[in-house]
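Encode chain A's predicted structure.
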Amino acid sequence: MMDEAIAISDVEKGRLWGLNRYQWLVIVAAWLGWGFDCFDALLFNFVSRLCIPDLLHLKPGSPGIDQTINAWTGGLTSLLLVGWGVGGIIFGKITDRIGRARTLLLTMLTYSIGTAACAAATNIWMLIACRIISALGIGGEWAAGASLVAESVPERKRVLAGALMYTASPIGLLLATFVTDLFTRRWESIAGNPSLAWRMVFLSGLIPAAAAGALRLAVREPAKWKAHHDRPRVAELFSPALRGKTIGGSVIAVSMMLGWWTSNSFLPRIAGQLAVSDGKIADQAHYVTVGTTAFNLGGLLGTLMTIPIAMRLGRRSLFVLYFGGSAIAMYLVFGCDISALVRLRMMFLVGIFVYGVFGALPFYLPELFPTRLRGTGAGFCYNIGRFIAAFGPFAVPGLAAAYHTDLLHVVSWCAIFPAGAVVLILLGLGHETRDAELV
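Encoded structure for chain A:
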């Protein structure tokens, strides 16, 4: 309690944006953990066009190679989403059992080691095994970080702190874009050897562990968590008092995940195919960089926009605005007949809504549950979305093949997911938490 009193005193003295140095340390630590989580998570999608043919011993230009890469990219992404969901639910409970800071360090070590180990894969099955290990840690990091931030800052700063934490995600993906571009295009001595290039990309997933791990050692467990010693049970999330919040939070997370993963998991593949259709086969990496950078910059802006919108309009209105914008952006950018580079630059618009809406989850989901169930509840809602969203990346290539169309058109059809979420929220789904205090 003394630490909490000191923290409140420091805040009242007017530190930066009303947060004292330790609270900023917590935000930075969670920010690094989440940013590197996203960095490691998407590396496979950036290099799938290189590692899948290499591990399957397919020659460039061989018949059906694009369909094979699309199928494996979708299948492995779906499998990894399931692994992330399992890790999220398991580590969500662990977060409430052993503490937020300890769980963060454990998950970071897991996903860093798993990602780096992918560099040593000699066949597709070894790659899958390493990615599953990484997936468990990636899935578990979010709930621990979100709970730690929510419980370590003053009530009136929870929206600011949560959204700031989530800005790490687009920046982490921008870093992944840069690293991929470096090894697959700019560093000529490595880019000229595709097998070495994708292995170097995966090996870079180990770099963040040391720096972020050092910060974790300086972070204490929140006083709110220390005051509770009961063992959480997932079944409690469906008690009469919490059932509506759990279902509402889960449906909102599912809608976000379906929009994000159907649009972004195939973005590198779509960008590469657009380069080919433009006759710029050698510039595929450049097209990928343009599209993913636009998407991530849009996501960064959209995440920051959640702060004033959530505080002024409330959480449910924020979700209606963002899901509506997501549906329109996905349909326009993926469905309309526009030139390749214009389409890729317009991914900025998709990023604002499809990606930016996630900035609300670090403060919204922790607000739904009491302290003793916060990690369990937030982890369950966030990661049940990953389980269901796993069908998206798996289904998109199959639909494209079945209807003899390309990935662009199938992704544009997926605008139905955020549109459906708007309807459900207007019908009463979702719990408004704008004036709620953590208990």
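Residues 1-14 have pLDDT under 50 and may be disordered.
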